[in-house]
Structure formats: C-alpha cells, structure tokens
Amino acid sequence: MSVTIDVKGLPAERISVVPSPLTELGMALHALSEPGHHPDLQGWATAVSGRLDPCLADRLCEADFLWRTTFSDVFAPFAGLPGRRGLPGGTLAEELDLLDKLTDEQFVDAALEFTCHSQYSRQSPGPLGDPELRRRALDLAAALGAVQERFARRLLEDPPSVRAWFRQLVLDCEEAFFADTWARLQPQLAADARHKTELLRRKGPAEALSSLSGAVSLDEEAGLVTIDKLLVGRGTTGDGGLVLVPTSLGWPHVMVLHRYDWQPVITYPAKATRPKAPTVEQLTLRMEALAHPARLRLCRHLARGPHSTSELADAHGMSAPEISRHLAVLKKAGLITSCRQGRYVQHQLDLAAVSRLGSDFIEGVLR
Prior knowledge:
By secondary structure, the protein is α/β, with parallel strands linked by helices.
C-alpha cells in the first residue's frame, strides 16, 4: 500500500521546496483538534486553546472536517491553479488570494474531500454538478453532526459566502494565535527549504526526496515517487511541477496531494531529529492482530476521527456487513471505541490503547 506520483520527464528545476503559511495553519488547526496525534505539541495546543475567544472556537467547530478527519486541499490552493506550476504565497493574505483564483467547483470539491475519496485521483463530476454526489456528501456530513451537515449544505447552496467565511476565519486565526506561531516557525521552515533545495541541486532528486522522510523514495528508472502510506493513490506531474512543503507542526504526518488535475504536493515534517519511519510491511509483521490490510486502512481512517459504519463502507468501497465484521474484530481487540450519537453509531480508534502497542504503529496509521 502506497501513494505514487509519476514524475517521468520531470526536470529537477520543476521540483520546488517552499514553506506555506496556509498549510501550516491547517496543520496548527489539526493539532488543536486532535492533540492525541501530536503529544509533543500538547503544551502549545493547551496554551492556544486556553486563550481562544469562545466565538472563534465555535466557528472552528463548524467546519473542523476540513482539518480534523481529512486535511483539505483548500490549504494548498496554489496546487489547483492552471498550468500546475503554482507556488505557495509568502503570507496568509497572498495564499488567500490564490484561493480566490480557484473555481467554485474546485473549492467545494476540496472542502468536501472527505465525501469523495473514491473520485480523488480521477476525473469525475463534483457534488455541485452531480445530484447523487451532492446527496452522498450531505449524508456523510450528517454523520459528523448537525453543525457539519448545516455547513456542508450551505457550502453546496452558496459557495461564495462560504469562501468569504473561510477567508475571515483564516484572518481571525492569524490575529488570535497564528501570527506569533508563524513568526517563530517561518525561519526554521525557510532554513529547511534552503537545505533541501541545495541537496536537490548537489545530489539530485532521489537524495532530496529520500531526505524528506523514510517513507519517501524515488525510482529514477521508472520515474516514480513512492510514499509509504496505509492507502493507495496515484498522481502525476505531467507537464507541471512537484512542490515539497516543510511543516514544523505536522509530524508524524506525511501528506500527499495527488488530486486529479492538480499539481502534486508532498507536505513533510521538517524536524531536525525524528525516528526512521517504519514500513507498512514492518508494521504488519509486528502487529499480528492487525495483519489484515483492510483493518489497517480502517485504523488509519478511525485515527482521524469518529466515523459511522456507512461512512467507512462508502470511503473504502466495501459493503456495510463487511465493515461491521472488521470493526467487530478491532473492537474485540480493544482497539476501537463506539458510541451512539442520535441515529448513528460512531467508531473511533482508541489512541491510548494503540499507543501501548508502540510509537511505530501510531506513526504508521497517522502518516
């Protein structure tokens, strides 16, 4: 299981290493909403959460699926620009201007990414133009809660107003906490980008890409970048470029944007010292109780937030009874918890339980 990016014919000069303030804000929001994924950031997350204005905190809850259960591509708008050679802006304001250049269809598809996993890597109609996808998007949003369902409905009915809402939310986050955070992190990220760029110039793409993470490798003969993750995906640079975005808040995640017709982007943890990432094969050998690949994929999904059986069936292309059988095995092993919310039963990975299995497993499912 891995994500691959076809880079055949891609010259080294079209590989760019650039920090992105909007991407880093997305990582910050994820760390705030899922502190269990980032134990080394708990002090920062506690301090920021403690001083958040209650009104802003409530607004963040409205659309937290943009950064909690998935990491939405709205945080990398440069990748969706025509020509597929865009680069991140230097400030949040510049990146929001890039976001404004995306069409409503692009914005809605990216914002509702959690509802269209199966269409992510291929050309397909979006929920704005396809009634069936629209219905499914609303059903899946409803499983997250009434607040998220209302937000998704508003997004589908009036994209421009939600775009304006999102812009204001970003600016308010900048004022509330992110300006200070970015001022502290930006020099570190710029230094890491310079180092990777120099490595790319001196040693070549294979060396530079493998330096991002033990999970990233390049087969130069095949022209294929492989990112070792517990999911399957395919992307291509075509006549565009490849952007590498360092993050200080994202470890252990290695994010790969491989959306159809967007420029591929790898967001990697820029950490001076980090353990070597285990391979999926090593994880499978270590965890005999989780040897079934479908259950490993379910663990990855459930690590990012609670999901209902129907959501999981839709995301993984399986029937509800098949999902239920896998969930029963995971629950018997004490690896997931379940609770009823209205007419839905939500399942979630028990991070406290799996952390006792080892940090390698945690890194693998969260990568």
